[in-house]
Amino acid sequence: MHTQWIEQLRALKLTGMAAALSLQWEQPTTYADLSFEERIGMLIERETLERENRRLTRLLQRAKLRVPASIEEIDYRHPRGLERPKMAALASCDWIARHQNLLVTGPTGCGKTWIACALGNQACRRGISVRYFRLPRLLEQLRIGHGDGSYPRLMAQLAKCEILILDDWGIQKITAPQRADLMEV
C-alpha cells in the first residue's frame, strides 16, 4: 500500500512529497508524536522546497552565467569602488521591476563580469529569468540566424528572459547590421 501511494505521488509529479512520506514511514518513531496536520504540513513544505530548488536550478542552467558568482562573496576591501549600500540596493532587484537598465563599467580585470554574474545569480534566486551572452558571440549567433532561419526563434528566446547580460562590449567594432540586430534585441 505504501509503495502504491509513493508511486501515485510520483505520477502526480509530487516527488518532494513522495520522498518526505517515504522518510516518515522509514522513521515512524521520529514522527509518532506529530499531529496529522503537522505531518501533512511537512509533506507540503518538502514539496514546495523541492519545486523551488528545481526552478532555481533550471533558471541558473538557462542563464548560462560565465562565472558562479554571488552577491554574498563580494570583497569590499578590494579597492574597486564598490559601495555596500549600492550593491545591496542592486541585489534587491528592484531595478528590474522598474524596467531599468544597468551598465557596469570599469577597467579590464576589475570584476565587471563577476559583478554582472553575481547580480544575475541573485535575480535567478528571486525567480527572475536571466541570460548571459558575450556580445561578440550573440552577434555571431544573430548573423547565423539570419542565414539559417533560426533568427526568429533566437529573438523569441531573448524576448522571454527578463534580464539579458551582455558582456565584452567594445572588443570588436560593431557593423551597421549588427547595430540593427542590437536595436531589435
TrEMBL record:
IstB-like ATP-binding domain location is: 8-185
Q: Which residues form a coiled coil?
A: none
Q: Note the SUPFAM superfamilies from the entry.
A: P-loop containing nucleoside triphosphate hydrolases
Task: Show the InterPro entries listed in the entry.
Answer: IstB_ATP-bd (IPR002611), P-loop_NTPase (IPR027417)
Q: Which domain of life is it from?
A: Bacteria
Q: Name one Pfam family in it.
A: IstB_IS21
Protein's GO biological process: DNA replication
Q: Mind listing the GO molecular function terms for this protein?
A: ATP binding
Protein name according to UniProt: DNA replication protein DnaC
> Where does this protein come from, organism-wise?
Candidatus Kentrum sp. SD
